[in-house]
Amino acid sequence: LFMRSVLLSRNRLPSLGHSTQLLSKRRSPSLPLPPRPLVPPAIQMSSSTQSQGNAELSSEVEALRKQLASLQSTLQQKEAQLNTVWPYSKSYGRTSINTIIGASDAGKSMIGKTLRVGGWIKTGREAGAGAFAFLEVNDGSCFESIQVMMSKEVADQVGGLKLLTPTGTSVLVEGELTPTPEGTKQAVELKATRVLHVGECEASTYPIAKKKTSYEFLREKMHLRPRTNTIGAVARIRNALAYATHRFFQENGFLYVHTPIITASDCEGAGEMFQVTTLLGKVDEEAEAPSSAGSQVTPEKVESLKAAAAAQGEKVKSVKAAAAADKANQELAAAVKAEVAALMKAKEEAAKAEEMSSVVGGLKRLPDGKVDYKEDFFGRPAYLTVSGQLQGEYYACALSNVYTFGPTFRAEQSYTSRHLAEFWMIEPEIAFCDLEDDMVCAEDYVRFCCRFLLDNCRSDLEFIAKMVDKTAIDRLEQVASSSFKRCSYTEAIELLEKAVAGGKKFEHAVSWGIDLATEHERFLTEELFKQPVIVYDYPKEIKAFYMKLNEDGKTVAAMDVLVPKVGELIGGSQREDRYDTLKARIEATGMDAGPYEQYLDIRKYGSVPHSGFGLGFERLLLFATGLENIREVIPFPRWPGNAAC
């Protein structure tokens, strides 16, 4: 049965309709446990005190879970040994380096096999007075490279050793996997018998040198920086966290929903949004037209043309009266037609001039001077989204539990190490869920991600701990194994004020009503509690309009998850589900309620208590790696003045 279950589950995510749910801290012990996923999260889920019988059952389930995980791992390793060729590189017969080096025995069971590996040279050096060379080849499948021993005879078939040794050269090499001498770093190496491909690299101009290179310089070479150790490790860690995210939510009964990138609403109400418009293209077209020069029409000219049209109208009346008095006069009848045609032309010129007078800076304006968007692509102002939350709520209020995972945008003129113009957000929305449930979900998700990294990205994390942040692994271990401290905003302020009274210096003053700064958040989690902290019930003035107003009328049911190194990692809340209260909150912020008509409708038609949170994916990467600048944890960072590559 174990093997059958493993075979059914390996190498795929659970089905999208999975019904498993998180165990809430406040779930009644008398309720039956929900069905668990085939390979549930490896962390201990938060739950209330259970009876002894349930505790014993939980232990049995945990033991079975470990057995399943062990069997699945063993099966995957045996399968890799059975067929070493990458599934979609069969035409080249290429084996991934991770299949060899990442095996449980570090590749020893493959010794004697003829394999092909392909990748890029990290380092190459000649030895034995030019008789052979050692090539460190990396294909990105894991942090480690494999050493290839290349003889002069084999290299001469493709141009010689000097062609193969430069850093950055790509190769596809066939050879026999052999054991290395006792005491060497790796257990195996590839003894090359032939070279099937060489992609030359001009060493004199190749910008990614073997020596350490600054992150600032690498940002100028974004197309090449994935070849560096740090950015490569970050890419694999980012991939693992993305996979862990989908796995966590899929295994706990959430549906993945794609929310729009283009929107007409501002979820945060901050107004720092990128606008999407086709009007500027029309401005350029008009500017290039020969008739556009000096085409700006003044109000005086419009009035003059209107007066001329009115005068022509009077003339038409006069001619018509004369023609009516002398119906037999053909000349008067022809004159009426001519004057009417002249009147129509005068009216057309006046109307066209009036329309042109509303064009300022190439854009048609309304009487109040604002841009008229009727001729724009969407017929109204449209923007790049800052959040998929609002649309996520629509689906949660029909499908119960959903999550989004996609790009969001913020047109904030910030050059700090914590801000990007384009970043990714993870946003679950949960029906029939209050703030306590929301905090449990956020905690379980973060702990699951930490444990997943520790179990699946060990070599990358060890490099990060060695070269970037020596506390990275310890920090992940701490968060994965620690419960999160709960602390109200008011309690947090009191603790910060007490610290100030005791001599602690903060750059930002502490008082009730402030938005906690990063230094305050890090003090709470790193120095005071020495564990992750969830701060809840914030003043309504510093939080978004959609957060549920508490009974005290001063605070909202909001929460922030604070972790070491980063500070705020997650922001969430119970959503305001009362129509009148939400509408009043929108109006109080000075926003137009029009774009939020559908959002308000959800509160009119079958409203339910619901909650959710948002996590900036890049902040999770900063927390995991300890890197100081957010531009290093996203493949192609965007910030003011930079959209290269």
Mean pLDDT equals 87
What is the straight-line distance between the termini?
A: 51 Å
Residues in helix, % = 25-40%
Query: What characteristic shape results from the CA principal axes?
Result: extended
Low-confidence runs: 1-49
What's the total count of β strands?
Answer: 18
Strand order of the largest sheet: 6-12-13-18-17-16-15-14
Helix count, per DSSP?
Answer: 19
Rg for CA atoms: 34 Å
Profile the largest sheet. Answer: 8 strands, mixed
Give the percentage of residues in beta strands.
Answer: 15-25%
- Given helix and strand content, the structural type is alpha+beta
Q: What can you tell me about this protein's structure?
A:
With 645 residues, this protein is an alpha+beta fold. Helices cover 39% and strands 18% of the residues. It has 19 helices and 18 strands. The chain has helices at 2-9, 52-82, 97-101, 152-156, 161-164, 215-219, 229-251, 279-288, 299-325, 330-357, 389-399, 435-456, 458-467, 472-481, 489-501, 518-528, 579-588, 597-604, 617-625, and strands at residues 114-127, 132-138, 146-151, 170-179, 188-199, 255-256, 262-263, 275-276, 359-360, 363-364, 382-384, 401-409, 422-431, 485-488, 533-539, 555-563, 567-574, 610-616. An 8-stranded mixed beta sheet has the order 6-12-13-18-17-16-15-14. A 5-stranded mixed β-barrel has the order 1-2-3-5-4. β4 and β5 (188-199) form a beta hairpin. α7 crosses α13 (458-467), α9 (299-325) runs antiparallel to α10 (330-357) and α12 crosses α14. The longest helix has 31 residues, at 52-82. The chain is extended.
